[in-house]
Structures are given as C-alpha cells and as structure tokens.
Amino acid sequence: MANVAVIGAQWGDEGKGKIVDWLAERADMVVRFQGGHNAGHTLVIGENVYKLSLLPSGIVRGTPSVIGNGVVLDPWALKAEIEKLTAQGVKVTPETLHIADNCALILPFHRDLDALREDASGAGKIGTTRRGIGPAYEDKVGRRAIRVCDLAHLDDLGPQLDRLTAHHDALRAGFGEPPVDREALLAELREIADFVLSFAKPVWLMLNDARKRGRRILFEGAQGVLLDVDHGTYPFVTSSNTIAGTAAGGSGLGPGAVGFVLGIAKAYTTRVGSGPFPTEQENEIGERLGTRGHEFGTVTGRKRRCGWFDAVLVRQSVAVSGVTGIALTKLDVLDGFDEVGICTGYRLRGQVIDHYPSNAADQAAVEPIYEMIEGWHESTAGARSWAQLPAQAIKYIRRIEELIQCPVALVSTSPEREDTILVRDPFSD
Ligand code: GDP
Ligand code: IMO
Ligand code: MG
C-alpha cells in the first residue's frame, strides 16, 4: 500500500501542515522525521486554529503520531505544546503519540548558543529561530548528544555529561558566559524525564511492523528543500536534510517505504530569515503578497519576505527530492493581480543558466528571468473543484507544471482544511 511523504519545495511555510492534516484522514499514522520545534504549522479547522511546532500535524485528528529519530527534541517545548493542545481539546496520550527513544535532545545551553552566535554575527547572521536546532544537531553528529533513552539513566550520565559540558564550557567561555550548571541541568532533566519517557519507544520497530501489516504511513517534513543543509542556500539553511530521502533514515524504515513524494509549493515564494532570494519583490507587489497571504512566521512572528514563483528553484527541489506530485497552495493570494510573474531562468554575469548555482556569492548574484502571465480577477478563494477555477488560473498552474516538470496533484485555495482540490490522490497512486 502506498505511503506518502510531504515535504516543502521552497523555503518552508508552504502550507505543509494544512495538507498533512487533510491527508491524515486517510493515513494510519503520521511521522515527523527531521527538524524540531523550529517548524510552525498552522491548521484551520472550522472556528479552531491549531499551531504545531514539534508534534506531527496528524495529532489534531487523533491519527497516531510519531516523532522519529531524525528529529531533535526539546523536552520542555514538547511539554508546553502538549499542554497547549490539550487545553484546545486535542488528546495527546501515549496511545496517540510515540517518540523515538534514540532522538537527540535539545538542552537549554543549545538554545543559549544559538542566540549567542546569532547576536555575535551582526549582518552575517542566519536569522535562525533561536530554538537551539543547529547546536543540538552538531552535538548529535559530534557524538556528544544526550538522547531520549538516556533520560531513564540519569544517574549514570557522568562521563557523557563530562564530554558534553567540556565542549560547551569552552564555547561559552569564548562568549564570556559561565560554564553549564550541571546540577541544575540534571535537576531539570529529572523533573521532566518521566513525562518524556511515557511516550518513548523504539519507533522503528513499530513502523516496520505497521508497514508489514500494510498500514498507510504519512511522513511530514518540516522546513523546505531550499533550507536543506546540502541542497539549500548554504549557509543560510537549517541544520538537517529536509529532502524526502530523509523520511526513511529519520524514522528507521528503508528507502522503499517513502512512496509518493508530495512537494508542497506556494503559488508564489516566501522566505523568513537571511539569505539569497532571487525573485524577492521589495516593493508594493511583495507588500501585497505579504498582506493578502498573512505572511508572518508562526514560530517567531517575523515578517516573511515575498516574491514571485521561482520555477527554477522548484524544479531543482523536485529533482533532488524525487517529487512525484506538487500541492500548489495559496493560489487565492494571487487573485486580483493584473499579471503574475514566474521565474524561468537566471542570468549570472551575462550567462543564462537553468539551475541554481551552489556557491553563495553566485546564488546572491543571479538575476531572475521572468515570464509575465495575465492574472485573473475572479476569486479562487475557497474553490473545492477544478471547475471552480478561472481559466487564467488554470493556465498559470499548467505553465508551472511544464516549467517544474512535475504534475500538480493538489491545489489549496484557503487556510481551511476542506478548501482543497484533489487532482490526483497521492495515496492511491
Ligand atoms: P507550513 O510550515 O508549511 O505548515 O506552513 P505555515 O502553517 O507556517 O504557513 C502557511 C500559512 O498559510 C498558514 O497560516 C496556513 O493557514 C495558510 N494557508 C495554507 N494554505 C493556504 C491557502 O491555500 N490559502 C491561504 N490563503 N492560506 C493558506
Ligand atoms: P516550517 O516547517 C520557514 C529557517 C529560519 C532560518 C533558517 C535556520 O514551518 O516550514 P534554524 O532555527 O532551523 O536553525 O533556522 O531556517 N527556518 C524556517 N523557515 N519555515 C520553517 O519551518 C523554518 N524552520 C527554520 O528562519 O532562516
Ligand atoms: Mg511554517
């Protein structure tokens, strides 16, 4: 039976949460496989708005939800998010939430280090979410991390903590900060350990078993391909691999488990934080996109930068992530524009190129080549069938499909769960 991996095909905030929630109705479980609470996914269901950062978006429907080993987990952020959702009437129990016991933890000094580095970087800062994501992944790869399973053995953590604090104390000293208070850290961990452990298990076992029994797994990516640590706009990226291939390794399943890869792309482009953005519109077009699209970050409240759809970048995301079909979101935001732009290529120092270069200076130097398409004045907001879309909007979608070399499987026309047009069902493909 088909599984589906949902990934962002731009710089994040493409509307993954809405699409995952919508697809979760037909999934047996939803699995997060990378990132952490740097993600911010907004779900609108009737009168209710749910904001999720760490928990898989399936949790709102009660679909069994899994946090895979590829995620970095802040125990206090987890508890706060569960409490917030519980207050909104969502049930989060050890029956509905399963956390990989080999997840690396985000600790308070990771958050400190993220902020200290950003503050010291001036104009060169990455514009991170300051959640400690980068420093936590560094410790994981550096083989110093404390993991979920270690919470059951806090009394035996001595040598592990020695290595970890020696590393961080040296870094902190460089910033004029005091060493890590080990006793305070252990006390905080003791207080939260049982809560986290109540959800912990070897989820790879559970997932492999589910797969054998033909259960439908929906993988929920965070961020987007252009923030991928290898394929994105390095160094202005997040510290994980955001491509669909990570769904397997980040959950403990083989690569064959991934199935249909659904890339989520906005009908225009946004980015939050620093870094190159070829089609950015720092003018009234960008303002209008931002206002109509309510482009403010879910996690940090920062204003998102806005611009036209970049077909070169999305084509690249489709290729490196093996995207089978695209969900094109926020089409309604383009309603009423006289014309809409699509970037079809770049000019780099006089030469026309058809892909995004890897070098940071080249990425900053490319000039977009636009194709302007006549807009539409009818409303697409709330459309639930292809027949409800104006002819010009359909032309726009068809042109995007051609340029990115990938079919559109879904179209989203408002934040509301049901305002979604199904063109091709990812689960029965
Ligand atoms: P994610 O991080 O990819 O899950 O996306 P976010 O939730 O951070 O940002 C997407 C925003 O757009 C959210 O506020 C959604 O409610 C909203 N949204 C999603 N799809 C649509 C759509 O088709 N039209 C409009 N107008 N808003 C949408
Ligand atoms: P969702 O899942 C948009 C960006 C940050 C910054 C860079 C590195 O909601 O799409 P980090 O804190 O990860 O070290 O920050 O990545 N970023 C996101 N931008 N959506 C996200 O997640 C993001 N998560 C991180 O703004 O530029
Ligand atoms: Mg988001």
TrEMBL record:
InterPro entries: Adenylosuccin_syn_GTP-bd (IPR018220), Adenylosuccin_syn_Lys_AS (IPR033128), Adenylosuccinate_synth_dom1 (IPR042109), Adenylosuccinate_synth_dom2 (IPR042110), Adenylosuccinate_synth_dom3 (IPR042111), Adenylosuccinate_synthetase (IPR001114), P-loop_NTPase (IPR027417). Substrate binds at T298, V299, T300, G301, R302, K303, R304. The active site is at D13, H41, K140. Pathway: Purine metabolism; AMP biosynthesis via de novo pathway; AMP from IMP: step 1/2. Mg(2+) binds at D13, G40. It catalyses: IMP + L-aspartate + GTP = N(6)-(1,2-dicarboxyethyl)-AMP + GDP + phosphate + 2 H(+). Its main location: cytoplasm. GO terms for molecular function: adenylosuccinate synthase activity. Keywords: Cytoplasm, GTP-binding, Ligase, Magnesium, Metal-binding, Nucleotide-binding, Purine biosynthesis. SUPFAM superfamilies: P-loop containing nucleoside triphosphate hydrolases. Its EC number is 6.3.4.4. Its cofactor is Mg(2+). IMP binds at D13, E14, G15, K16, N38, A39, G40, H41, T129, R143, Q223, T238, R302. Homodimer. Plays an important role in the de novo pathway of purine nucleotide biosynthesis. Catalyzes the first committed step in the biosynthesis of AMP from IMP. NCBIfam families: PRK01117.1, purA. This is Adenylosuccinate synthetase. The lineage of its organism: Bacteria, Pseudomonadati, Pseudomonadota, Alphaproteobacteria, Sphingomonadales.
